Every structure is written in C-alpha cells, then in structure tokens.
Amino acid sequence: MKSLSSKDQSLITKSKIAAVVPAHNEEKNIAMVIKTMPEYIDYIIITNDLSSDKTSQIVQEIVKTNKRVVLIEHEENQGVGGAIASGYEWARDNNVDAAVVMAGDGQMDPNDLPVLLIPVLSDGVNYVKGNRLLHPGSIEIIPKVRFWGNSMLSFLTKIASGYWHISDSQCGYTVIDKEALKTINWQKMYKRYGQPNDLLVTLNINNFTVKDVSIKPVYNVGEVSGIKIKKVLFTISRLLIKRFFDRLVTKYVIFDFHPLVLFYLVAFFLLASSIFFFTRVTWIWIADGYAPLMSSMAFMFMATSSLQSFFFAMWMDMEANKSLRR
Q1: Which of 55, 93, 217, 291 could be 141's S-S partner, Cβ–Cβ 3.0 to 4.6 Å?
Q2: 132 and 138 in contact (C-beta within 8 Å)?
Q3: Which has the closest alpha carbon to 176: 168, 187, 184?
Q4: Among 268, 242, 263, which Cα is nearest to 252's?
C-alpha cells in the first residue's frame, strides 16, 4: 500500500474485509493465491465448487495453520456465479465492510486491490469493478479472441444494465460494499459465467453506484480456462436480453414510470415492421426483378425511425442513471 495516503492505508487496515475465492480444480494455484493475499484481508473465503482434483485437500491443510482461511464446500457444482454467491452470503452473515472477489487461478494481481477498495471504503461507492481494457497496452496482453469477445459483451451489458460508463463487463475482480451485500438475494443470482453481467443489472435496479478502475491484465500464470467463447457469447447475450427487459419493467414501469419505455416499445415495433417490409421488397425483387416503390419507402422510413427511437431511449436511460455513475 505504498502508493496510498496514510489516511487510506489506515482506513483499509481498520475495515473488515473478506476475499471471496471461487475455486474449481485449482490445485496448481490455490495455495499461491492464499499465500499472496494481503495481510489486511481479514477472511479468505474459498468456495470449493465440487473440484475433482486436490483443491479441497490443499485448502484443508492450509486452514490448520492459517486462521483467516474459511473453506466452503459445495455438494454439487454450481458454477463460478454460485461459488461467488456462497462466499458473498458468508461475508454478509459475518457483517464485513467489503467483499472482494479474487479468482482461484491467480489471474488477479493483489497489488491492484487497494485501488478497488478505496472507492468503496472511502467514497461510498457500492460496487467497484476492475477494467482491464483501460490498462495501457491491454490489447497486446489480452488474447485477441477474448479482447473482442469481451468488448462485444461489454457493449451489450451497457444497454442491459444501464451503466453506460462501464466496460470489461466480464472482469471478475470486484469489490462490493456491506449495503449491497445485505440487499441482494444471492440465491437468485445467475450461477454461471454470466454472473458479473447479471449482477450489474440487479445493482442498477436497486440504484447502487458503480465505478470502473483500471487494473493490469494477468495471463499465462498457469490458469486453465473452461470457457468456450462462442457458447458463452450466445448464452450471456441471451441472458442480457432477458435481464434488459426485466430492468425496464421493474425500474421504469413497476417502481416508477419513465417515457423511455415507450420509446423502446416504438423502436421494437418499427424494427419488426421494417423487417417485414425488407422481406417483402427482397422477395418481390428476386421474383419479379424490381423493388416496389411504396414498400421500399416504408422500409426506409421504419428502419430510420426505429434507430431514432432506440437512440432517444438510450440517451434517456443514460440521463436517468447519471447519479449512479462514479
């Protein structure tokens, strides 16, 4: 904590902080993750998500000599989201001030932790997440497929969550405060790799503040990824579409009405209409060799109006969520 002021160092030291470490078959790195955990971390919560290797045995041995370590055993595999949820519930029930998520594969640099903690402990931010895309040279460090896949999901997450200022939505290096821990029902949280995206939507519905901070991407430390990019992109995209409508209905219809809902409805109606007219124009052009004028004009009008409605709705969503930006 050399780069922090004495005030910030004192605040971190005095706060009760838990590190939630989801672990599934992490026998190679789990001991290193625990060993490199900063001293100011009061609890190291390892959630063993039904590993088939020696992860559990290694942690059990460490528990005997390291009183900070807490081992939670899952009787069935719940996915990384389920493992994090179990750790969050333990942190909530033990009244910690902040809970940080650090992967069990060593891909999160402990030196970055203070810059994640300070906004929560000092500035009243409810949720802080790391952003590897902001780090200088990240495009050279992060594998290309992951970089562009992450960028695509980040854009979709902006729309679904209402946090238009965030990116690197798949980064799991996060800190959450006591209020959010106690408010959210962790049993309803998405269990798999879409957990960070699902959580952002839930945070927005509850009007919690979120901040991005730049962190260093860490790769080639022995991590083994079980993520299949194409499958994850499809699965998370489908989740984001569902959660987008959940947020609109809950936040802008049930809790309070906002006209942006009407703009989105108009946009979707016009989009469907434009697809109909585009299909008709294409069909006639292929069959008869010409494009009907009225249908072509209707398509262009519908498509243009749909885009305008979408942009107006997005702009109003940005304005409505300005207060949640930190």
Answers
A1: 217
A2: yes
A3: 184
A4: 263
* Same structural domain, 70 and 203: yes
CA distance 266 to 131: 34
- Do both 244 and 308 map to the same domain? no
Q: How far apart are CA 148 and CA 155, in angstroms?
A: 11
Comparing C-alpha atoms, which of 43, 27, 28 is closest to residue 92?
43
What is the predicted pLDDT for the residue at 41? 97
Average pLDDT, consecutive stretches of 10 residues, N- to C-terminus, the chain (326 residues): 77 96 94 94 97 96 97 95 97 97 84 94 96 83 82 94 94 96 96 92 98 83 53 86 97 95 97 96 93 94 97 97 91
- Structural domain contains residue 1: no
Residues 207 and 274 in one domain: no
Domain, as residue range, for 302: 258-324
Could you give the C-alpha distances from 163 to 24, 141, 267, in angstroms and in order?
30, 26, 21
At 143, list the tokens: 């594998």
The DSSP code for 325 is B
Domain count, the chain: 2
**Angle in degrees, 0-180, between the axes of helices 229-249 and 195-205, rounded to the nearest 10:** 10
